[in-house]
Amino acid sequence: MMLLLRIAATHIRTRMRQTVVSVLGVALGVGFSVAMASLMEGSQRDFTATLIDAIPHVEIVDEQRAPAEQPASTVYDAVAYYGLRPKEDLRGIRNPTEALAALRDWVDGKLAQRLSGQAVLRYSGQDIGMTLTGVDPKRELSVSNIRDDMRKGSFEDLGTTANGLVIGDKAAERLGADVGDTVTLTSASGVAKRFKIVGLFHTGITTSDEGLAYAPLKAVQILLEKPDIINSIAIRLNNISQANDVAARAERQLGYKAISWEEANEGLMEAFFVRNVIMYTVVGAILVVAGFGIFNIVSTIVHEKARDIAILKSLGFPEADIQQIFVLEGLVIGILGALAGSALGFGLSSYMATIRFEFTQDVEMTHLPIFFSGTHYIIACLLALFSSGIAGYIPARKAARLNPVDIIRGAT
């Protein structure tokens, strides 16, 4: 093997310029593929982390996953229904204390109850439609990051102010209101109640900053005329990988629809999968192009070293050894390119991680999300070695099949 490797190294050194170009081609392919993979996975992880922090890991809502079965369907084989009228009943999760107690027995995480509804916020003669959410402030802070989004006041003040209200800064700007001002909220049924603004938040999402408000749960239940009723339970798990299992068990236990963060963003997860497939396809294409350079140099060496091949065969070298020499030449170029490309990829990734951006006054300066993973280097190097091996194997087969007598006759 050492003899074959020395012969391969000698062949490569005789065409140093072409060898360097081929090595650079592989290095660029590996380096840019590693940098691209680091950026793509980093952006995916950053977006997923932001998404997970922004929404509950599991949310139980006052809906049924399947429509309720009508009593007549259990008696008759074929039934047609006409003029069905819904029950005159308030919608929501009844006995929230009992439901929360049942979940706390086995859920490894934090729970918070909510009651959401539509209301009109009025101040200084202007009206804004709002989604009003009644919460227990301490429990809400354990399942959401609203504390980090506060710009004025404190979210905890909802617990000490009976009719406190926290709204988005965009809504306050439209109304000309500020912390300490008293506003009026009117429900869809016409019930009006005065609230005092105790805080302003900014999430960067216009729909939330203009149309979302938080108030104490009891005050919202009175305004919406739903005493002792909630319409959702938010769960923040210590282990997010259990989200689907927790949602399924909670749905079986309570009978209400439970949605995990993965189910809520199923389309987004599929888009990430497709994007990763596209990314690795592009990476493979880059390295295949680099493989053409290796194919070119090995083919040239085979053509130029035809007399050497004849001599080696005359000395008793079998076809397998001849073929192995030229495959080794391709692999050596691939290995050198993979090593240089790994260093280049690490350098590019490290540099991109230092690039910082500032978009608006409301968004803090941020940087490119780069994720360093040894898997990226392994995959890129393996693809490089595979393309190098194939590029060396094709001309190697031709070299192994050459007839030494024909070569020597042609040379003479």
UniProtKB/TrEMBL annotation:
- Principal place where this protein is found? membrane
What Pfam families does the record point to?
FtsX (PF02687), MacB_PCD (PF12704)
Q: Where in the cell is it found?
A: Cell membrane
Q: Where is the signal peptide?
A: none
Tell me the Gene Ontology biological-process terms attached to this UniProt entry: lipoprotein localization to outer membrane
The membrane topology noted for this protein in its Swiss-Prot or TrEMBL record is: Multi-pass membrane protein
- The MacB-like periplasmic core domain covers 19-252
Q: Which UniProt keywords apply?
A: Cell membrane, Lipoprotein, Membrane, Transmembrane, Transmembrane helix
Protein family per UniProt? Belongs to the ABC-4 integral membrane protein family. LolC/E subfamily.
Q: What is this protein called?
A: Lipoprotein-releasing system permease protein
Q: From which source organism is this entry?
A: Roseibium marinum
